[in-house]
Records
---
Amino acid sequence: MSLFDYPRINIKGNVTLNPGTANNDDYAGSYSIPAGPFEGQTLALIDSKRVQPRTYGMSDADFIAWVQKAHTFNSQGGGPTAQIVPAEWNYYGDMTSTVNSGDATVIGVQTGPGQLYTAPDPAVPASALIGSPLSYYGGITDVNSEGSPPATQFFIDQLTLMNGPAIALQGPASKGACQWINFYRNVNQTADAGAGGYMYHVILKSQCNGNFNIPGFEDSSIIGAIFRYYLYNIVQPITDNPGLEKLYENQQQNAASLQFVATIAPLYEGEEITTGPVGRLLVAPPPTISTLPLTNNNGSGTIALAPAVLQQNGNLISVEFVGTFPDNSQGSSNDKYDFGPVTLMADGSGTTAMIGPINYADTTGGDQRGWLFDFDISGNTVAQQALADPSATFRLQSACCGNVLNEAGYYIVSNQQAIYAEQYGPGDSFLNQGTTEPATIAIYQYGQQLTAGVCPPISVWSYSTVPLQTPGALVQVTQNFQPGQPLTVDTSLPGNFTFTFTVGNQPPPPSSYGAFLNPPFTTLTNAPQICLRVLPNDEDFSQYYVDPTAPEPVGNDKLTFDVVFAKVLRTYYLLYPVMNQVIPLNDESKVSAAASGILYRTDPALWMTTKYMPRTRDMSGSRRTLLQAWCRAQPKS
């Protein structure tokens, strides 16, 4: 049952995210250089196709100074000019994601339908976890720094859940990719502050070195734990230009804090999808919910709800609403926005049945149950009659707004949401969880998984998503795809590509990536996506190796530091300066002295950890080989 099994350990807290922002290109397509030889060019600091900085003709020193100060830029839409710090809000970010001990605690435990504990009960062992801290240390990086969902990857080196003085759970997690990005999460916040995102990891018992002791998880068929959390309500300490300039003068970081609610649930053997809950997907129609007189949100006063996932197990219906209902920031409080009563409904066998009300306005109660709501319909004969129809569907009905969520015709999921390929490399095997694997999708209809041959033909569509200011148009890759079939792509061009899918006679996605990505946002939230980055290998470096055929080549006399700096290190020197606080990447003697450490930290065996460099994971195979060949040629210290 994936996330819907018991016991469910529900947690609330805060996470610190510390991304480097110079590669985000958030102003691309909106603002441009006002004067000089680059007048009219868009403000964007990285060519993410080639993984090269865009310095507008400046020397390295001048560029570093320029990105940390506010300058006047022209609006490319004809609007007023703006004062912008090109490096954005966290130039010295180190790409970490941290929940410190004490930042998050267990606030509720569900051991069965209607069995929610918010205080320890001696008769219920799992309830002893209430009040215990959860912590983790990990990293974050975008597949596509220019904004292609599901873009942000979350890595967890080690997660620890305590049970009093004892360890209940400790181990690494699978990589998670932010999905169901909802820009209508808050009716009183705009931009990222008004958004939320959904994460899903699994922690395997076999990787916990004996530290897997969660009460209620003793069943031998439980092979691990699911860790699902929802991030929202971002707070950036410094956002004004003078504050950023002062911060950067001291080379300081500007990490953001976000709230999250989380659930830990059993992972059973045989579960195939490890990136999200399976079952039935409920999605919103185009935005129609009015928040007037509140207009300070990303819908300017009209919003939609984020998706929910429902699963039926006999007479038990469980629904996850962790990201569904919008918040309403009011000073220090952040209650749910109240738009009247909502009820879960089912339609089938010519009958409409009420499954039950959703008390979404009770924020505390929702957090304590992890926003997982259970309904026992054993005494609801009307619901049983409706759901006897194999084609019955669910919806969420609002007394004032009509149907705010409807069951999608098909629920499309993939374990390969954020993947990498190498230019000219295989087009059917991708780097995902530290190793290469095919990219496939699974299809659910009415809660049942459809197999190849039973599922209607699937159309695969793609967008080239960079550069952000001029992304590509919709392209149909194939129209006869099937569940479980490996996705095959052309890797001859570097860049970022978003793949989405339609089934049978469903209408095609928007014709442009801009329409897919931007308001009214429901396509972005509802549509299934796989984000692929093809890393550039557009230059032959064999001239720089003593033996180009060697599995671990060594640099020859042609491979000088100037070459390796220009081809590899300069991007990170300019755009990720936190690295320079450890090793000045423009200093040959310092880099040479660190050669053995660089060889270790660029080993792909570390890819799933924060030890791997670069943490941005955008160094292609050919450039990594060039850097390592230079390191092997350095004198041994």
Note: The mean pLDDT is 96.
---
Amino acid sequence: MKSILPESIIILIVILCIRYFIGFGDVVIGADGCGYYDYLPSCFIHHDLIRKDLKSDIDSLKFERINNVGGGAYSNYGSHIVNKYPVGTALLQMPFFFIARVFATADNSYSDGFQKQYQKAIQIATFFYLFCGLLFLRKLLHLYDIKAYIIIFCQSMIALATSVMAYSSYDASFSHIYSFFSITAFLYLSRLYFKTNRNSSFILMCALLGLAIIIRNINILIVLFLPFIARDYMNFIYGIRSLMKSYNKTILGLFVFGVIIFIQILVWYLQTGDFFIYSYQGESFDFSNPHFLKILFSYRKGLYVYTPIIFLASLSVFFLLKNKRYFEFFSWVGFFSILTYILSSWWSWYYGCSYGQRVYIDYYAIFFIPFAIFLNEVKFSKFVMIISLPFIPISIIQTYQYKNYILHMIDMDKDKFWTVFLRTHDQYRGLVWKNNVDTNNYMLADDIYIPHIQLNEEKSDCVYIFKNEDIPDLSKITLIQVEAENDYNPSSELEIIIMINRISDGHVFTYIHKYFIHLNQNGLKNYHKGKCDFIVDPVISSDDLEIKVVLKNNGTQSQINNLKINFFAK
């Protein structure tokens, strides 16, 4: 039990941080995670994995469930439909899926594989493989003779100061934690092989490499890191020559590797009738146009911007150069350069709606090996560790921001980043998500104008009610625009509510609610004219309607000028 105590405590801290600061979601199997996971319900509940004899255009009804799986999990491949995501993540989730299946069907109710029991099972599975990844990281760093407290520090920083927090909570069904486990275990066994030359280490090394590849095919790149793991040129060459001499060991290792890879090949065949396919139809790499700097430094999704501890860990590589460990330095830099070049050449280098630069999570171990070596050998290691600790609350806060729509999932920039940096109050939710509508496509039908509003520090509402002749023909209105001149103080909790309701029974047709700072156009902390657009459904006009404008003052003194509510028809 003592041997797993550090990892157990770290996972407990992760769970407590999520529970009390970030919040667990009811649904963790979503977006890309639906595709990685759907092999399990497809095989064991719906029995619709084998489709090679079905054509999607002829047997369209048989593909109804598949077409409704979220995250764009399935893509067209010729006349067939294929799950574009690899099968490896589902294989690791399988034991947890079966446990959930027992509880989900205990009352004989219908189960489609996405009920609450399955959601919780996948959440637990992700924590389990994060635990395993941290355990293998400890074993790996032990082979470098790293002090125990430094290993625990590195484990803690990976779990608490990186994107791991996000992808072990509400995006737990994504493949990245599973890849982190398999790659870290592969690196441990590789290091063990180069140190001991044991047959068993090589066989297991081949098995873990195969598993890593069928979790994410791009993980095959990790073999390029083997020179660094070997530590020096002579040890690397000796390990390769040993394989060439020991035919039985090499053949058995390749056989194990091939068996695991064949699982993916078989799944492709069962879906399409072809053994080798490219499942990401319409998506590809553009190696002539890599976004090398953006993937590392961009405010949109830059690795170093959203996980600064990785930047610090990357800098520690120069310690190897300073100590004339040239082979390790150049093999690390070479691998990192190739990895970044390839990852940044993907058509969507920012990898969709996600938090941070998630594709590097799989390879976190490669950053923390040189970082641990650096901390282990310098005299000021404790100082470096202390100044790294703020990265933990920054990571937790930004994960909270992402979950609560304060950070934008896909469209961050410098202004948005610093506008909401470490902000967690409710008024910041959706602030950087605002989209202005092109009013050239609309016709201004009418407006409501309030020239001046003075709000004091009392927590009282200011209410304006408009009826009859002051109300436009709402049956044609599809856009409402609110504009006003104001000092958009970031600490202001002033809210504006616009309601269109029926007077006789109070039925509300339209309800618009925004914090006033969401109207700003030119940034916070300055006085200017701002606006916000709202797409609405038309309301059948009658004499029984009223428009109510409410300014909820939550104790902030404010002066609003030229408040205007414009009504546009399409």
Note: The radius of gyration is 28 Å.
---
Amino acid sequence: MRFFNSKKMQRLELLAPAKNLELGKIAIDHGADAVYIGANRFGARESASNSINDIEKLVKYAHRYYAKVYVTENTIFYENELKQARQLATDVFNAGCDALIIQDMSLLEMDLPPIPLFASTQANNQTLEQVRFLESAGFDRVILARELSLKQITEIANNTNIELEFFVHGALCVSYSGQCYMSCHLTGRSANRGCCAQPCRSTYDLIDKNGKMLVKNKHLLSMKDLNLSAHLEDLIKAGISSFKIEGRLKDAGYVKNTVAYYRKRLDGFLNANPNYGKTSSGFVTLKFEPNVDLSFSRGFTNYFIDGNRKKTATTDTAKSIGEETGTVKHVAQNYFTADTEKSLQNGDGICFFDKNGKLCGTRINTVVDEKIFPMSMENLKQGTKIFRNSNSVFERLMKQQTAFRKIEAEIKFTCNSEKIILQAEDEDKNAITFEIPQTGDIAQNEELAVNGIIKNLSKGDSIFSFDVKICSSQVLFYPISVINGWRHKVVEMLLAERIKNYHRKKSVINKNSILLYKKNLDYTANIANSLSAEFYKKHGVQTIQSAFEIDNSDEKKILMFSKYCIRYELGLCRRGYNEDLFLLNNKQKFRVSFDCKKCEMQIIK
């Protein structure tokens, strides 16, 4: 059994999404060191809300493995919601949660319980100055903007002492997080209030200042999904300690597959680097081979992690098209054949683009030799590229139990003429001793008796994986039912000892007046209540503009700030040429402005 010296080890955390209690448990079973979950209000995913009772159940489950539970309270609050926001923070703390992920600085002006605060990526954590300020304000962790490069992350890590978290997988917003007001402008549904209508996934026409049509009916603002699995070691060296998977609206199959995939990738690094370890306990045994290509994605990008600009949009569709499987070779009346790199199966879902660029899809009824019989033959033509967006075999597998997680532990069995002593210790050095009066009989076959004790004490019906050591020279015979009773008692005692010794970090905000790095804040600071304004005033801010959600009357306000650039994506980027373009959608017209010096794009009313 391998015991870790936590004082000498740098700990790395795999952080997984939990839509609800069930998916939170699934994430932990598949190797998550921590999960993040929304409560009944104020989460940035309004449709992924949970009761405090369910969160408390998840906490109890997670803490058995020394895994952590973070709650998202990362929307902005209106004035009449401040008491509710404070009460939620208190309820979350009382439920045993390990941290609160927040955006609204009003919470730092409240009398909160000693729960650690993490600065949500919604707080627009792009710069060293911002991270330094958040550290001085009392945050325990900062979740960095997804747009940062390794060089920028390294600079922040080298000049701060705060924990840094970074997204490594999942859906991407086209805008800097917390800096998109397009949904609120169009529908009244604010991204900063957890109910984004996702206008970035819609189709748009693009025209120039003269009205010339450049692109028609394309998903010009829809990003591919992030996949930094090949850059985990780079991120570790840059200073990231928590690796976050996006997906609080995703299903169980997605959670199982992505968490298991990143667990394997991180474990590969940990096994080769003994100075690093996990933040939780136990090991995971998988019943499948994880492959993120088989879960929902819009195609993958590593975004700006290497500092290079690249094409990152999926303009043809905002849906998942899955893995490319081949090209249609022959079309008959009710079947087709294809040159396929990956064999298609009965029940698979396939999709393809027709001659007009429209995404079409169907399901395969039967595959007989080379003949593929789909439910519909409509729009299938020779030469069409086929994608599999639903793998029936994999999806059936994902509905079964696909992993179990165990904590390494050791049982030492000792006996004498008076008593039996069972000493158990787990991988985190939690230890118990269980003594019972000697009740055994002389063993007719001592080897068989020893094997019976080892076999029945090490049965795998608990969260522990026991290594049993016999520490007596003579062993008596005991019935299986008796040994099973000992094991159940040892499990009960050791689990209780683990929970008793679980260390939940507590953090108290020491309020101060350290100056913010700027004196004037406009609507992009997302200040929607008096306490948030008071916080910034104490930190030297002189003028404060209300949040967009409070006042959006100014027609010149920028609706979106983005590192993504339509010009570059379409091959229209030319040095020194940054003339505005225009997006059209359902009679709505938006001006697209380009800041070539910063290499950024803005969308304006």
Note: The CA atoms of residues 456 and 480 lie 7 Å apart.
